[in-house]
Write a structure and sequence with these properties.
With 260 residues, the protein is of the alpha/beta class. The chain has 2 domains: 6-200, Alpha-Beta Complex (2-enoyl-CoA Hydratase, Chain A, domain 1); 204-250, Lyase 2-enoyl-coa Hydratase, Chain  A, domain 2. Helices cover 48% and strands 15% of the residues. The protein is built from 11 helices and 9 strands. The strands form 2 sheets. A 6-stranded mixed beta sheet has the order 1-2-3-4-6-9, with helices on both faces. Helix 1 links the parallel strand 2 and strand 3. The longest helix is centred in the first third of the chain and has 18 residues, at 78-95. The two termini are 27 Å apart.
Length: 260
């Protein structure tokens, strides 16, 4: 399938979704949101795709919302756009029962940064940068920014980053715990794809349940989380992958998981 604003390919269990508006630093407009939604539907439905990598074409990951579209359509309020486009995409990424890796190849700003943080693992090129510049245009951080940032880097850094609208380097983001790892630019995609292939050949059900359990823990008390772990463990222990994992362990060989 061909899309206007993204590139998508799948091989060896990995889907690669590339935001493809390089002349706009992959700024998010309505069409890009629609194309991302269609690609996510494909990933959700195709059992052969067991991990997803999200990156950007050109020299940027995503510069956030396309403000020119906002000026072209002033009747569409910012809140309406968030409800219609941004929130559904972020929720679907978080809920995807397959691992998602963001390969941040350049600037990730505003909602573009939130798009990366909605993924499960964030790798960044050393030249990549992160910024929440909403206050520069008299807006409030959105698209999940005020949810992700305090949980990842604490309220002190979250407030400074958003109020001052200062740029954060990839190395600083790694040191803060905002991302998983910063890597040399030329190693970004090879490392992201190798990690995705590793996850794609893993126990997909268990990986998906693990994602859900960690996300749920942010709002659960201990007893609720223990009960959730118990229920998820019951489900995972009934999978074919669990039986294969135990057999491989006992036979001292590498497990061959099928995602079932």
């Amino acid at each position: 399938m061909a899309w206007e604003t993204i590139l998508f390919e799948a091989s060896d269990g990995v889907g690669l979704l590339t935001l493809n508006r390089p002349d706009k630093l992959n700024a998010l407009n309505d069409k890009l949101h629609e194309d991302i939604a269609e690609a996510l539907t494909l990933v959700e439905r195709d059992d052969a795709i067991r991990a997803l990598v999200v990156t950007g074409a050109g020299r940027g990951f995503c510069s956030g919302a396309d403000l020119s579209q906002r000026l072209d359509n002033p009747r569409q309020g910012a809140g309406d756009a968030l409800d219609k486009h941004y929130h559904p995409r972020l929720r679907r990424l978080r809920a995807l029962k397959k691992p998602v890796i963001a390969a941040v190849n350049g600037p990730a700003a505003g909602a573009g940064m939130s798009l990366a943080l909605a993924c499960d693992i964030v790798l960044a090129a050393q030249s990549a940068t992160f910024i929440q510049a909403f206050t520069r245009i008299a807006l409030v951080p959105d698209a999940g920014s005020t949810y992700f940032l305090p949980r990842l880097i604490g309220t002190a850094r979250a407030k400074a980053m958003t109020l001052l609208a200062e740029q954060v380097t990839a190395a600083q983001a790694e040191a803060w715990g905002l991302i998983w790892k910063a890597v040399p630019d030329e190693q970004l995609m090879p490392e992201a794809m190798a990690m995705a292939r590793r996850l794609a050949h893993g126990p997909t059900l268990a990986l998906g349940l693990t994602k859900t359990a960690i996300d749920a823990s942010l709002g659960n008390d201990l007893d609720t989380q223990l009960a959730l772990e118990r229920d998820f463990q019951k489900e995972a222990s009934q999978s074919q992958d669990f039986r294969e994992g135990v057999a491989a362990f006992l036979q001292k060989r590498a497990a061959k998981f099928t995602g079932k």
